[in-house]
Design goal:
The chain has 56 residues and is mainly alpha-helical. Helix content is 41%, strand content 0%. It contains 2 helices and no strands.
Length: 56
């Protein structure tokens, strides 16, 4: 069995660039305990941003 994507990570296409709004939210929470230790994790940032939008 040949593995064409053996070295690939994430299992999907690359994420699109974060919008300015998403980047602003990420900046607001950059020093928050909820983001501590997470570096450039756009999946988490986008997920949190979506939660914030639902709460409003």
């Amino acid at each position: 069995m040949e593995r064409n994507h053996a070295e690939a990570t994430g299992g999907g296409p690359p994420l699109p660039e974060m919008s300015q709004t998403s980047q602003a939210v990420a900046s607001l929470f950059a020093t928050s305990a909820s983001f501590h230790g997470i570096v450039d994790d756009s999946d988490t940032v986008i997920g949190l941003f979506n939660i914030v939008l639902r709460l409003n």
